[in-house]
Amino acid sequence: MKKNVFLIALAAGLIMTSCASKKDLVNCQTENKSLTENLQAAKEDLAGKNARITSLEDQLKAQQRALAESKKAYQALQASLDKSLTNASQNNISIEKLVDQINESNQYIRHLVEVKSKSDSLNMVLTNNLTRSLSKEELKEVDVQVLKGVVYISLADNMLYKSGSYEINDRAAETLSKIAKIIKDYKDYDVLIEGNTDNVPISRENIRNNWDLSCLRASSVVQVLQNQYGVDPKRLTAGGRGEYNPLQPNTTEVGKQRNRRTQIIITPKLDEFMELIGEAPETGK
User: Fold this and answer.
1) What is the rounded CA–CA span in Å between residue 8 and residue 132?
2) Is 88's pLDDT higher than 80?
3) Nearest-CA neighbor of 210 among 173, 268, 255, 157?
4) Residue range 189-229, pLDDT digits in tens
5) 143-161 burial by CB neighbour count: b if 16+ within 10 A, else e?
6) Residue 24 half-sphere exposure, CB side, CA atoms within 13 Å?
7) Hey, is 231 helix, strand or coil?
8) Please, which pLDDT band fits residue 59 given cuts at 50, 70 and 90?
9) Distance of alpha carbon 216 from its chain centroid, rounded?
10) CA–CA separation, 269 and 280 (whole Å)
11) Span 229-257, average pLDDT
12) What is the layout of strands, in order, in the sheet containing 150-156?
């Protein structure tokens, strides 16, 4: 009886021991799995940090290279500045002198602008005075324009001359007298009388061609302005351009009529502009 009880107790102890060992094994396996997962996460985190360190090291190297290039550029600029300052010193160029030169140039430019404005204003007044002095009938045959600071008075040949001739007709006297008065009022202007013809050949005694005709017509106007209306001959120039300065093609009668004209060109005196050029400030060397 006692022997049976002992055997039963021994079996129960073995069973309990077996159960305890199995539980510990499961716990160990669970803990091992957790540790393995933690190790893997730690490895991945370490790899990420190593990659970040590598990236930062690359950025640091790039910034160091950029800094080195900046220092090199700075040194080049400093050398250039030093060279410029040395050259400036060697050439005795001072800021004050440069400012003086700029001021002189500005004064000269302002003077030119004032002269140009004065010339434009005088031309406008001259043109207005001339057009107001001419009658409506005269304005039909007289064209007055201002182009690039020059006053052009264009007169038709049938108004000024006898047909096919360079002699001034009586009809032109009143118009030329009005133009002469304007010319005399503006003493600071020179006057060029320019003859123009169409391309129809002319053959008359003492007139070889259209060159001759245009020059003779211009000369006739000049002599009328001088001899009859008292314009200073020193201000007058006579010239002819023949058929080589047409306003329109010579293919129609209207075109030929437009081309047969005499222009009275009123310009500021050339010597005054040459004096202005001579007054230009010298640039520093």
Assistant:
1) 152
2) no
3) 157
4) 899 999 999 999 987 888 899 999 999 999 999 999 999 99
5) ebeeeeeebbbbbbbebbb
6) 6
7) coil
8) confident
9) 45
10) 18
11) 95
12) 142-147, 150-156, 261-268, 189-196, 236-240
Write the CB contacts of 167 (distance below 8 Å, at least 6 apart in sequence): 161, 220
What length is written for the chain? Answer: 285
SS3 247: coil
Which helix (H) or strand (E) covers residue 147, if one does?
strand 142-147
**What pLDDT score does 274 carry?**
47
Predicted local confidence at residue 136, as pLDDT: 80
pLDDT at 9 over 70: no
The backbone torsions φ and ψ at residue 266, rounded to the nearest 5 degrees and listed phi first, read -105, 120
What is the average pLDDT value for the chain, to the nearest integer? 78
CB contact at 8 A, 183 and 191:
yes
| H helix intervals, the chain | 2-90, 95-133, 136-139, 157-160, 173-185, 210-227, 253-259, 270-278
Query: Across residues 162-178, what is the average pLDDT?
Result: 86
Residues 119 and 268: beta-carbon distance below 8 Å:
yes
Tell me if residue 148 falls in helix, strand or coil: coil
